[in-house]
Amino acid sequence: MSDRPNYTMPDGTEQADRFPRALEPGYFQPEERGFNASLALGFDIAKHFAFYDLSDQRRGAWGDLFATNEVVVMAHILSADVRQLESEFASRCDRGLEHSVQFAFETAQEIDLWLTTLRASRHPVAGELSARIQPLLSKSVTGELQRLAQIIDLLRPDMPALMQLSFGGFHRLWGIRPNAGDAATAVRDMVQPLRDQVRTIVASLLNFIAHLQGILRPYLAEALPSQRHEPAIALFFVFLKLLEKVNGQFNRFTARHLDFYYRRVLGALPHRQRSDHRYFSVRPAEGHSGILFPAGTELVARAGDGGGELVFISERDTLISDARVESLCTLRFERDRFISPETELGYVTRIKALRRDLGVAAQSGASLADWPLFGTSSRLAGYRSAENANIGFAVASPLLLLGEGRRSVELQVELGDCGESGARPGYDLFRRELEALRGGRAGAEQAFRQLLGRIFRHFILFSDAGVDAQFRQQLTEVARQLLAPQAQRVLEQLLQMGPEAAFQRLLKEIFVISLTTPSGWYFVDRFVTTRLERDPGRLRRGLCFRFTLGPEVEPIVCYSDEIHGGRLGAAAPLIRFQHNPQASFCAYSLFDPLPLEAVTLDVRVQGLRDLKLYNNIGKIDSSKPFQPFGPQPTLSSYLALGSYEVAQKRLTGLTLNLEWAELPTAFGGFTSHYAGYQQAIAEADIRVDIAVLQDGIWRPQPERQRPSVPLFQPTVPTDRLNRTHSIAIEALDLFRPIDAVPGEAKFDLQLGAGNGFIRLGLSGPEGAFGHAEYPLLLATALSERVRAKKPLGRVPNPPYTPLLASVSVDYAARTRICVDDGRTQPRQQLFHLHPFGHAELRPIRAGNPYALLPRYDTDGNLFIGINGGASGEALTLLFDLNEETNQQSAFESPSVTWYYLNAQGWQRLPAMNIVLDTSNGFICSGVVTLILPEDLDRQSSMMPAGRAWLRVGANERLDALPRLRSVHANVIRARRRVDAGAQFPEELPPDSRWRTAGSVPGIAALVQLRGSQRGAPQESRRGFLTRISERLNHKARAVNAWDYERLVLERFPEVFKVKCFEGLVPAEFDPEAEAQPRPGRVLVVVVPAAGEGENLAYRRPMLDVQQLQRIRDYIRQLASPFVSIEVRNPLYERVQVRCKAKFLDDTNAGFYVRKLNHDVSDFLCPWIPFGYQARFGWMISREAVEGFIRSRDYVEQVTDFSMLHIAEDGADRYTLADTVSRGSSTAQSHRIRWRYPWSLAVPMERHFIEAMRGVEPIEPEPAGIGELDIGGTFIIGGTH
């Protein structure tokens, strides 16, 4: 792994580090000697005073009275100052080896005196203590003392001062034997190793004294009050105890002096106790609403078993209604910077929706399990539970009633201009804006991306929009100034494709198309998307969709709520265009600013057989061959036909397809067949007049104006009659669509239908098909045979009676639905498909055109469904937010906008209707009080009906905002009443039962909610001294790092640690380069307390956004106005230990793997006292971690050891480092250091530990792909 230039930094400041050591109790005392030190001092002084008996004879010294008393010995031991002894030894060492050896001997001699005296004492306590000391002595000190004796013997010939040192008087417990060795080596050759040995011996002796002091105090406390002491020494003990009390009063001088200065001179006082606040949901009784819950009302509950009553007092008057929050929905227009080309164009990349119905659960304080406040994104937990939003548009039209045959549909969407068409063809408008962005002013990159989105819209939707070379060069130059190289490449690829190629690549599958069928929705799997073709004289902007349904596709029928769902209420077939989440391009932003002008629908059907047929005889059954003009056709015969499907449409073309049966088979057609008839009949002579039924009258009138067409296809003498013939029906301008309301059953010519039928009236030849002439011709032929007595000659063919095997129609129809047209067209409807409903597009109001897709002004949206609550009344909502965040730094509160739903759609809630908002823009839990508008629509189709709907929208920092745990209506805020002198109250149990102290009519219940503001007890003396001493240092001004850290820790007690970096800008920091300080820039990193409980090692606590803001705003007030301050949470760089371990108990290897995983995590955890702790500028040594593992009493051997280091920069970019990597230096592979200076190291939850059976060492190797975890250690493209 690569390394950074060496950079050491001081650690930050923790709350526990703030108290000055000089203010610690007992740090300085006028009389520092206690009982033990005074007794030891008395003993030392008594040694120098002679003792005279009653005969005035000298009998030794007063010290003899003390020497044999076990209390004196124990006090002497306890009064020994180990640190002072260490310092004295260091000075002796500086004077030479001889003096250090003398110090070691003197120390050992003093210990021996203590032990000898204790063993000689007859006091039981002394005996017990001696018995306890003996094993400690033999274990730790005896060997060192034996070695000291050998060193003295070795040095004695060359150092005369050591000649007097003898171990002969030492107690036999030491086990010192005379040195039998011969010290033949010169002393000067052994000075250095001997000096080290003496240091080790002295350290062992001093450690023994310190350990002895640790176990001695209980024995002293037991021995002192016993009645076995000599009266004189007992009186001395009493005197020292009385003196200790006097000294105690005297030693309070420093504390009293400090209090006098702080309180009397400076006038400082400790902070008073601060009450906590709670939120309560008030449930009105059944049938009650509009209840005033007055300020000052006392809320009472009992504090635990046997506890007193806790009293809270409501803070303000609150109107309680019957409103309940029953539904929550979120809609998120995500802008993922990793998705191209949308991110370069400033477009939306995904649209996600979530919905939850709360019902009664909302009133019981039920949690939403961290519901995303303004919709979830791919960066947030819960992303997979979000659904792709159902957003799009739909068209309902009778034109889509397509029952059978081959059905072709073409739908054109015409989009208006958003003020940019004037820029074509030279892109003049865009040129001026591009020039204005040169130079990279503040916000230029974002403005350039928005401009690119407009240019791309113009580029891809205009039918002849091209980019000339000059404009392309200008665009490329600005992009090089403002965009990253990757974004520049994306832009260049778009420009190289050209408009048509870009359209086909990006927009061909942006929608999912479906139609209504009897079994549900039929999804069109193949369709073609093109741009609108250019009309002569004008540019057109829009889309064209074409597809064909084969005969195998079931009929397209009218929309049904029961079958198709959605409550659209359309009375015609429906075609639906839904945003396609699987498309390669999200086109929502492409259409957002463009007004929808019209939708044109063209259909073409071939082979429609579902016809109703009539002739002059009656209704015809077309399921089998039939005679269209009856068995004896005349010029009064006709065939009338109609189709319920066709009758509802405005036709642009109609063709009748006839398939004849039993036609004459002779060559020459009817000319040959009717040979011998008086009137020659050819195919062209058999004609029909076409009439259209219009309002009950067959038109045109008079009949001679009706178009006449041949009934059969003409033939030549060498051909037979063609069985099929198509007749193009003209006079379609007379065809008027019918109203489908009466239904298909009443579409009947015999029942008086007024429109929708076409009649083919036989108009030639004069004798029609010769049925009247044929009997005469046949009689004449038979008569001539009788008269001539000749064989029967050629008899005329019987006339052809028209017989149709089948009849079908082909037709084309068109309709155009204009959004800005105030005229209503029967059963023609346009709909916007919203994620949770729909809206019919009514005639637009001036200045407020519709877009192709539903418009939402904000990327993040929270929808709140309210059941109950009267319009015009106040509604109080508590938003209980999980304020834990993944946001690294403070930012300004996002601007949120409130909307309400009325009959015209979403409307902005007037500012006067927002009475109160304590959530600070939804960055912390708080109460919002609103006045519900009078024009709320509770039955709107845009959202689930039966509720009043509110919407909150925001555009900025959506992923950094807290998540919603619960939301409640009818909420009051109350503060705790604390009586004078009362202890600071404990946390309230969540199931506390509450009541009002007095009667409030109409209130059924009070429910304690989770959101709260914690109070604080009265400031302790230690906290008071800390605060005032710091205040005297920084003087409420932030000048240096010490000031910043102390100011933050004092004002914000929830902060565990603060580190101030001077001249560091995280956005400009390069981990691979030398850091360049930036004057005037300050980074303050705040670390909150991790808390307690399980999984402490894996916690990565962060302050919420509101707290970061408060800290930043507070520091800004105290710092220079010329300093730019950033406050942020720490980064947490994760460490994973990888090794193989041999356990002493192989049979329970799985248990010990888990135990070792837990122990290693605790060792690396920054929140546990032992181990590495929370340190900035951290470095984890491979030897330290491996040594810790080896020190576990259940581990026999460790091998194949390495560590992984995972770092994140706070912007979803990760790096992975391995202490074992090919080509790395030895120094680099032995430790892990911070990658970002504002980071802390935390362990991963699961280390890679394997149990092994053997004990052979294994060389570690870099971690392979198969050993990495997705979502943990598997990092793409980010090693260092």
| CA-based shape | elongated
Q: How are strands sequenced across the largest beta sheet? A: 11-10-9-32-38-34-35
Number of helical elements: 26
Give helix % range. Answer: 25-40%
Oligomeric state of the chains in view = single chain
Unreliable residue stretches: 180-191, 422-426, 1264-1280
The end-to-end distance, rounded to whole angstroms, is 5 Å
Main beta sheet strand tally, sense and closure? 7 strands, antiparallel
What class, by secondary structure content? alpha+beta
Mean of all residue-level pLDDT scores: 84
β-strand amount: 25-35%
Whole-number count of domains? 7
Using only C-alpha atoms, the radius of gyration works out to 50 Å
Number of strands: 52
Give an account of the 3D structure.
The strands form 11 sheets. The chain has a 7-stranded antiparallel β-sheet, with no helix packed on it. Strands 16-17-13-19-29-23-27 form a 7-stranded antiparallel β-sheet. The longest helix has 33 residues, at 191-223. Mean pLDDT is 84; it is low at 180-191, 422-426 and 1264-1280. The protein is 25% helix and 25% strand. The chain has 26 helices and 52 strands. It folds into 7 domains: 36-178 and 208-225, no CATH class; 277-321 and 974-1013, no CATH class; 324-391 and 854-969, no CATH class; 393-604 and 819-829, no CATH class; 609-668 and 681-767 and 800-809, Sandwich (Jelly Rolls); 1036-1128, 2-Layer Sandwich (GMP Synthetase, Chain A, domain 3), CATH 3.30.300; 1131-1267, no CATH class.
